[in-house]
């Protein structure tokens, strides 16, 4: 279970909206002043993320809670979102390249443009299917309150 601390920002019956700060390892890296990835990450990445969860626990706005996401869900969603489009790209590129060679078109860009379009369509399809999937292995859960005394 991947765990993160979050703050409750809204409560509506059994639905709870929490805000979690997105952490980056760039702040602890020694090369952060010379790294392009760190600059882009700091400039473009959102600093907080909001999640709406169903929970039977009673919480109040402003309360700190621990939110967990099952690791199996993260791994399988990552595989579907990254590996399937990658394999699609490879297979589509070679298939389209061979088909174009049969009609004597030898330029790589002629195969690249339809391959990118097919890969994008597969990515969008997988993303939409995963967002509609109501499986418990993909849903974050509220694990516990963090007591502040």
Structural notes for this entry:
By secondary structure, the chain is of the alpha+beta class. The chain is built from 3 helices and 5 strands. It has helices spanning 36-44, 71-102, 108-132, and strands at residues 2-12, 15-21, 48-54, 64-69, 141-145. A 5-stranded antiparallel beta sheet has the order 3-2-1-4-5. The longest helix is centred in the middle third of the chain and has 32 residues, at 71-102. The protein is elongated.
Spatial arrangement of strands, main beta sheet: 3-2-1-4-5
Low-confidence stretches: none
**Continuous helix count:** 3
In percent terms, what proportion of residues is strand? 15-25%
Task: Specify the helix fraction band.
Answer: 40-55%
State Rg.
22 Å
| Overall strand count | 5
| Measured distance between first and last alpha carbons | 27 Å
Shape assignment: elongated
How many strands, which pairing sense, and closed or not: the largest β-sheet?
5 strands, antiparallel
Helix-and-strand structural type: alpha+beta
Calculate the mean pLDDT score and round it.
Answer: 80
Topology pattern, helix = H, strand = E: EEHEEHHE
């Amino acid at each position: 279970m991947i765990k993160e601390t979050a703050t409750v920002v809204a409560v509506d019956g059994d639905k709870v909206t929490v805000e979690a700060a997105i952490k980056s390892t760039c702040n602890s890296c020694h090369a952060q002043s010379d790294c392009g990835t760190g600059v882009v990450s700091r400039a473009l990445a959102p600093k907080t993320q909001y999640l709406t969860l169903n929970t039977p626990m009673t919480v109040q706005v402003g309360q700190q809670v621990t939110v967990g996401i099952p690791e199996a869900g993260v791994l399988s969603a990552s595989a579907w979102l990254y590996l399937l489009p990658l394999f699609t790209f490879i297979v589509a590129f070679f298939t389209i390249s061979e088909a174009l060679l049969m009609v004597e078109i030898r330029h790589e860009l002629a195969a690249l443009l339809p391959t990118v379009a097919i890969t994008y369509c597969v990515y969008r399809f997988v993303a939409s299917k995963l967002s509609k999937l109501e499986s418990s292995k993909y849903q974050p859960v509220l694990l516990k309150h963090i007591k502040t005394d």
